[in-house]
Design brief:
The chain is of the alpha+beta class. The strands form two sheets. A four-stranded antiparallel sheet has the order 1-4-2-3, with helices on one face. It starts with 8 loop residues before the first helix and ends in a 10-residue tail after the last helix.
C-alpha cells in the first residue's frame, strides 16, 4: 500500500477526483482539465487517441506506426505490416489506453495472432526502438516559450539470477519484484 506504482488505477486516481471537483466548481467547467492539452481529446487525461497525438509530431521524431482495425483478418494485418516494412519485433498497443495497458512486445506471428484475436479496439503497431532507456517528457508550452517541467525514466522490472536461488527467492529479495509476484 505504500508504493503507488502497485495501486489499482481507481485507487490511484481517487485523490485526484476531489481536486477535480474543487477545480470544476471553481472554474465553472467539468472539462476544465482539457484546456491544458487543447489538441488532445480530454486533455490527454483519458480516452485520447495515441495516433492523433503522434500525428502532431514530425515523422522523423516518431517510430514507424501502423493502425490496425481489430476486426480485420490476421492475413490483412500481415499485408499491412509488409506494406509498411514493419518487421518483428515490434510494439503493439491500443490506440486508446492508459498506464501501459496491453502494451506488448510482439516477437513472432504467434504473439501477433494472440494479440489480434483478443483486441477489442483499433491498435497501433510500432517499430521497436531499443535505446536501453526510455523517458517520459512533460513539456509546457506558452505562446512565446516552452520548457520541460518533468522528466521520468521508465524502468522495466528485471531480475538477475545468482545460479543458486529459486525464482521465488529472487522475487522475495527484490523490493520491486516482490510486489508483482502474485501477478
Amino acid at each position: 500500500m505504500l508504493h503507488h506504482e502497485y495501486w489499482p488505477s481507481q485507487l490511484f486516481y481517487l485523490p485526484v477526483l476531489f481536486l477535480y471537483l474543487k477545480n470544476a466548481i471553481k472554474l465553472g467547467s467539468l472539462n476544465f482539465f482539457s484546456w491544458t492539452n487543447p489538441k488532445m481529446q480530454n486533455g490527454g487525461l483519458i480516452g485520447y487517441s495515441k495516433l492523433q497525438m503522434l500525428n502532431q509530431i514530425p515523422d522523423q521524431f516518431c517510430p514507424k506506426t501502423v493502425v490496425i482495425n481489430a476486426s480485420i483478418p490476421l492475413s490483412d494485418v500481415e499485408i499491412l505490416l509488409l506494406t509498411h516494412k514493419l518487421t518483428y519485433p515490434f510494439i503493439a498497443k491500443p490506440d486508446q489506453g492508459a498506464r501501459g495497458y496491453r502494451v506488448e512486445l510482439i516477437e513472432d506471428i504467434r504473439m501477433l495472432r494472440d494479440y489480434h484475436r483478443t483486441a477489442k479496439q483499433p491498435y497501433l503497431v510500432q517499430e521497436f526502438i531499443d535505446y536501453g532507456q526510455e523517458f517520459g517528457v512533460f513539456v509546457v508550452r506558452a505562446p512565446d516559450k516552452f520548457y520541460v517541467s518533468s522528466l521520468v525514466q521508465k524502468e522495466f522490472l528485471s531480475l538477475v539470477g545468482d545460479g543458486k536461488s529459486t525464482l521465488l527467492t529472487l522475487f522475495n529479495k527484490h523490493e520491486r519484484a516482490s510486489k508483482y509476484y502474485k501477478k
